[in-house]
Here is the input.
Amino acid sequence: NAGVTQTPKFQVLKTGQSMTLQCAQDMNHEYMSWYRQDPGMGLRLIHYSVGAGITDQGEVPNGYNVSRSTTEDFPLRLLSAAPSQTSVYFCASSYSGLTYEQYFGPGTRLTVT
Amino acid sequence: KQEVTQIPAALSVPEGENLVLNCSFTDSAIYNLQWFRQDPGKGLTSLLLIQSSQREQTSGRLNASLDKSSGRSTLYIAASQPGDSATYLCAVQGWEETSGSRLTFGEGTQLTVNP
Here is the structure.
């Protein structure tokens, strides 16, 4: 199993550009989520999904959209990039959201200039 | 709102020493607690998961304990090695009305084991 994969590993955007961060898992996990990691603020939940077709907002959802058309994929879209979205983004998955171990991807390091 | 604190923020020890990393959380209504390791520029690797009904979990040289009522967990690393150098993150799984099921993370303890 590849586990949780994320692409790209690095990305530089200009303010106002849009892009999609890809996340996929091959463990047949129902629960998937996106976090961002910033110095001094730890990891914070952006959006999550409890299954295909179901998504919901986390702690810091503004400026981001998600969709979950399949169990395997959970892309994160930046609609109009801002410098405040410079961060490292991690995708995670687990069998379910409440009691099971969470597995994280390798991360995408995003810089917005 | 759940808050997780890890002490110390940084720790430097000689190889072979046994050490303890501390984690505290403010809301005891958790489903589980998970310890992660993060190497510089890398993702998070799960080390141990303790369910809310459990007191401890062990994996190799690692032992994690959980005292839910007092809001504390410790990660014990025996016979530390230079390869253990990394940032160790504690996270509690809970439910919040505004953001549903989520992991709340501490800011981590940066461990350096010197040869």
Remarks:
- Chain B touches chain A through 27 residues (CB under 8 Å).
- The first strand of chain B starts at residue 4 and ends at 7.
- Residues 58 and 64 of chain B are 6 Å apart (CA to CA).
